[in-house]
Write a structure and sequence with these properties.
Keywords: Membrane, Transferase, Transmembrane, Transmembrane helix. This protein is mainly alpha-helical. The longest helix has 26 residues, at about 90-115. Helix 3 (about 45-70) runs antiparallel to helix 6 (about 90-115). The protein starts with 8 loop residues before the first helix and ends with a helix. The protein has one domain (about 10-339). The chain has helices at about 10-20, 25-40, 45-70, 70-75, 80-85, 90-115, 115-135, 145-165, 175-185, 195-200, 205-210, 215-235, 250-260, 265-290, 295-315, 320-339.
Length: about 350
């Protein structure tokens, strides 16, 4: 099945970008650029390579996921399935294979030109995680494998930027807090997918923890990034300024109420979307603390502008909507009244 014949070419491209969740490019580009800046180099000259690279890689990850998850999506994500059918799953499959091959070819060409084995090793691991997340080893079908892969997806762009000029031994340890943060929250994306995942015989680690009567484990999971940061500072592995990330702790813990209180499908979808927004804000916070300069703030600001515009115009599920604020207010009111 190809593109629907009635759609114009620009419409087809926009639809492909929507189902390919192009907004996540902002995550990757922000981490990559900050890492270059943190090694003492200007990331702006790299944007001519970095912007198309991370856009292509984002589409490669997401389109591979769309094709691999077409069975679950028919149950969990009917609105996204409709868009995918407009594009055509055969087209999505061909695009995913082509884009994955293009990224690998680019990394090989980069190694031939740059000759940094450490950088190529990170790039190769990044590509293998990308490919095996949805197909191959299919990390996402394994309860802890999916969490490890998701953590890698967001730390590896930073390492790719760092290894252009830097060394492994000098990677700033506070960036590891991003791994713990992703681990603590990434499973929330599964709360909308329980029925479809069950058809594959899969039950999310996060869904399992959240469904237990005791809230202690869930609160410990959500609070783990801040305990980790405090530990790094206490042992001198991070500068005290990173304690500023603690301002996000109440929001993380609030998600325990949101996850447990969401009853309707649209409420769970809202919680999932707000998780991504919070995820993004936390990432910007930690990246700016790694390189707290005006120059880096401008780069992160540009990435944020793209994130907002893509969320509103180029994502299969429009985010940052007024009705989603109402959903959150209703969930919290219900939870606090019940308590």
């Amino acid at each position: 099945m190809g593109f629907v014949q009635s759609a114009t070419f620009p419409t087809r491209v926009v639809t492909l970008l929507q189902v390919g969740s192009i907004r996540f490019t902002a995550f990757y580009l922000a981490a990559f650029s900050t890492a270059i800046a943190a090694t003492g180099h200007d990331p702006v000259p790299w944007l001519a390579i970095a912007v198309p690279l991370w856009m292509v890689k984002c589409l490669a990850i997401e389109l591979t996921n769309r094709y691999a998850d077409r069975i679950e999506d028919a149950v969990n994500r009917q609105e996204r399935t409709l868009l995918c059918e407009q594009v055509g799953y055969d087209t999505i499959r061909r695009a995913a294979i082509g884009l994955n091959a293009l990224v690998l070819a680019f990394y090989l060409a980069w190694f031939a030109e740059w000759r940094r084995p450490e950088l190529f090793a990170v790039q190769l691991v990044s590509w293998l995680v990308m490919w095996n997340y949805s197909v191959g080893l299919r990390f996402k079908a394994r309860r802890l494998g999916v969490l490890v892969a998701l953590c890698g997806t967001f730390i590896l762009p930073f390492l790719c930027g760092w290894m252009i000029y830097g060394e492994f031994k000098s990677v700033p340890l506070p960036i590891l807090a991003m791994l713990v943060f992703v681990f603590s929250l990434s499973g929330i994306k599964d709360i909308t997918d329980v029925e479809g995942d069950a058809k594959r015989g899969y039950r999310s680690f996060f869904v399992d923890v959240a469904s237990r009567r005791s809230a202690a484990r869930l609160l410990l999971l959500l609070g783990s990034p801040y305990l980790f940061i405090a530990g790094l500072v206490a042992f001198g592995a991070a500068e005290p300024r990173f304690l500023a990330l603690g301002v996000f702790a109440p929001i993380s813990l609030l998600f325990a109420s949101l996850v447990r209180g969401a009853r309707e499908p649209h409420e769970r979808t809202t919680v999932r979307e707000w998780t991504y927004q919070f995820w993004y804000v936390f990432l910007m916070g930690i990246l700016w603390l790694v390189q707290p300069t005006v120059h880096n703030a401008l780069v992160l600001g540009g990435c944020t502008l793209f994130w907002v515009l893509a969320t509103r115009k180029l994502h299969w599920a429009v985010g940052l909507r007024a009705d989603q604020v109402e959903d959150v207010s209703r969930i919290l009111s219900r939870v606090f009244v019940a308590s």
